[in-house]
């Protein structure tokens, strides 16, 4: 099994102002633990870790992963 500290990277590119990228915790209780707000054209490069098991994206954005690309908020 892959070590979570060396987890997959992903890129989020905001296609509009005010896109929120929200990190969710691992464990029994899933909780929000980090939020970033992006304006149109901004990107964030993030990684799944021991603490981050999922990401929620609010707004129109392009998400790029090794599994492919997709758009949110359309």
UniProtKB/TrEMBL annotation:
Residues forming the Tryptophan RNA-binding attenuator protein domain are 6-72
Which InterPro entries would you find in this protein's record?
Answer: MtrB, Trp_RNA-bd_attenuator-like_dom, Trp_RNA-bd_attenuator_dom
Q: Which domain of life is it from?
A: Bacteria
Does the record carry Transcription as a key word?
Answer: yes
- A GO molecular-function descriptor: RNA binding
Q: Which UniProt keywords apply?
A: RNA-binding, Transcription, Transcription regulation
BP GO terms, sorted: DNA-templated transcription termination; regulation of DNA-templated transcription
Family recorded in the similarity comment? Belongs to the MtrB family.
Q: What NCBIfam families does its record include?
A: PRK13251.1
How it assembles, according to the record, is: Oligomer of 11 identical subunits arranged in doughnut-like structure.
Q: Protein name, please?
A: Transcription attenuation protein MtrB
Q: Which species is this record about? A: Paenibacillus lemnae
Q: What is the lineage of its organism?
A: Bacteria, Bacillati, Bacillota, Bacilli, Bacillales
């Amino acid at each position: 099994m892959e070590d979570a500290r060396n987890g997959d990277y992903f890129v989020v590119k905001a296609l509009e102002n005010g896109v929120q990228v929200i990190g969710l915790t691992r464990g029994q209780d899933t909780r929000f633990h980090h939020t970033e707000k992006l304006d149109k054209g901004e990107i964030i490069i993030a990684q799944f870790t021991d603490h981050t098991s999922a990401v929620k994206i609010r707004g129109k954005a392009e998400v790029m992963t090794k599994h492919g690309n997709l758009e949110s908020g359309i």
